[in-house]
Amino acid sequence: MDNATSQKLRHIAEACLLAKTHTGTLPPVEDTQKLLHELQVHQIELEMQNDELREAKDTNNIALYRYTELFDFAPVAYFALDRTSKITQVNLMGASLLGLERLKLTGRLFLHYMTQGYRVKLNDFLTKAFDTGNKQNCEILIHVSNRSLWLSLESSIGLTETECLVAMIDITERKQAEEKLKRAASVFSHAHEGIMITDASGNITEVNDAFSNITGYSAPEVIGKNPKILQSGRQKSEFYDEMWHSIRTQGKWSGEVWNRRKNGELYAEMLTISAVKNTMGLVEHYVSLFTDITTMKTMTKSHGQLERIAHFDMLTNLPNRILLADRLSQAMLQCQRQNQTLAVVFIDLDGFKLINDSYGHNVGDELLIALSQRMKNALRGCDTLSRIGGDEFIAVMVDLEKIEDCEPLLTRLLKAINKPITVSAILMKVSASIGVTFYPQDCVDADQLMRHADQAMYIAKKAGKNRYHMFDTVRDNAIKTRRQSIGDLRAALERREFILYYQPKVNMRTGKVIGLEALIRWQHPTRGILPPLDFLPLIEGHKCSLELGEWVIGAALSQISHWQNMGVNLSVSVNISAYQLQQDNFVARLEALLNDNPDVNPRCLDLEILETSALSDISQVSNTIKACHKLGVRFALDDFGTGYSSLSHLKHLPAYLIKIDQSFVSDMLDDMDDLAIVEGVIGLAKAFHREVIAEGVETVAHGKALLKLGCELAQGYGISRPMPADDIPNWVSNWKADVSWQADE
Ligand code: C2E
Ligand code: CA
Ligand code: CA
Predict the structure, then answer these.
(1) How far apart are the CA of 738 and the centre of ligand 1, in A?
(2) Which residue's CA is the closest to the ligand 1 atom numbered 37?
(3) pLDDT in tens, 183-217
(4) Which has the minimum average pLDDT: 187-191, 226-230, 725-729?
(5) Measured from the CB, is residue 639 less than 6 Å from ligand 1?
(6) Which has the closest alpha carbon to 477: 433, 444, 522?
(7) Does residue 651 sit in helix, strand or coil?
């Protein structure tokens, strides 16, 4: 009790005593009175004090009761802890927090409920609370029977020096929510995807770092704005209509969008927009998530572009030669499998160069584009039209049942090209020449098919343009065979596979061998000895026949020389084609050959002119013959009677001998017409003072008949078949004319 209070108490006690004295029971005596007074005052003081104490105790009891109530049933967990965290007291909430009865908890260390990191934290908390006596706060994580709980701790001022009352609140839920948010925030800011959140009306409320990295806009620059600021204009309004339709009906949309960065650059993004609704089902905001796919896009684009350049014509967008070749081979396979026909159509514009030259290349290019479109329209969907260069196109028409099926298509194609066309305000009318070939009728590879169609186009062009021409496979095959034969013959010449056989010519009446005809043979390495008609016609009119012709003359001359050396003197006749005879250098070549064999008398060489009907310039040939005469070489007209102009030939060509063709001779015995011809030829020869020889004398009877008609010279199987040179000397020395030939007259 402090001084002021006891002083006050004393005053009240004195006043009480004074009041009692006035009511007057005892008379006051000075000293005793004073002491008594003091005692009385003191007693009253004590009584009052006692009352006060009783009162205070009651109040205290009530307070304690209230406190215990409050403590025990507080909705907050209370723990009284000492410095080491030993629990000295705990309320019901605290006990339920740790899942144990209160009795069992007292004495335990609170530290045992947590891991090392949080123990340090709790220690720190307690030390500070005890040392400073100030309120402390901290959050710790404890583990209670497999559960983790976040607790928020607050110390009250220490109850005693050894105890501190700590209030603990379970903040697990809040903590988890916070963690989740933190994670979300971290994902939001660290995501590589751009994230943009807009409110329900579409204004940007939040963007992340990736958004800024991709678009170039910082958050403050876009917040509150409409995402339209990113639009590039590359998508039409329908695109956005569709996007919003999807968001409205399905809650989301994803797809590729071309947008524009802050610096104006276009970029492609893969975008997903989701509508986020609240519990009422109303859209609260839209979340857009996007990745920059520009590099990927441009990469695939350039890959695609390479692909295009490799297979398509850049100007017209039509397949190019490479793709065409591929499609054609495929179509050819298909044809084989399905027994169908395809047409390879070579289209070449007429006079395109002129258009290019007079209007410039741009106009030319535009024309090509326009025409290619027209041609495409004229064809069917299954056909392929390709541009293979300049003004050249190739169409492959498939699925044809027969060749004629393509004719209406070709007509349509020509018409489409021929229709007047306006390019760059210039009205033009162009046409095309078209060549066509068919597979498998033209049974060659894809490359050759295109070449054949090209050749046919060339013919269409020469025939007057604006038309189509079909490739002639028969003719082409002949040309091919010929080309092959020429090669073969050249090789045979080099390998010395040709030899000459000799067939004797005789005078039936005198029994003299007047000469030999040299007849060529091919000792073919696999086919045996081939007669001239098996190979000569194949090279007719070709340079290579000249080489062979010269070889024959040379070989005959050296054979004559060889026989001469053996003492066999025989003249040899050599067959000369009209083509060879008409060569400008014929005389010179002959002279050279004669010079190569100087020991041979040119008189020993006769030349038989074949196919006289093929002689075009009679007077020139006549001059040639005369020139040859000067060299000493004489001529015979072979195969006389065949062809039409024999008579005029006889008149104009200075040949000393005419040969009646074997075809008339061999049939003269049975065929009166042939007999008449033979007779006529003999008469003509006489009239023109020429000698006459009959070939094809197959029997003695033929000889007899000829002798009767006045023809003494003969050649034929009836006398001798052509034979190798080596057999000739023997044959010549042994041969005797049939006796019946001399018997007659
Ligand atoms: P050609 O000049 O009229 O030659 C006569 C052909 O009639 C030879 O045929 C000969 O074997 C054949 N022959 C001879 N006697 C008879 C017979 O009694 N009956 C029958 N059925 N045929 C007989 P080959 O050797 O096959 O020659 C055929 C043709 O080839 C020759 O007709 C000639 O036009 C040409 N020829 C032969 N050798 C040469 C040559 O070196 N150069 C040129 N340019 N043509 C040649
Ligand atoms: Ca002949
Ligand atoms: Ca003949």
Answers:
(1) 23
(2) 519
(3) 888 888 888 889 999 999 989 999 999 999 999 99
(4) 187-191
(5) yes
(6) 444
(7) helix
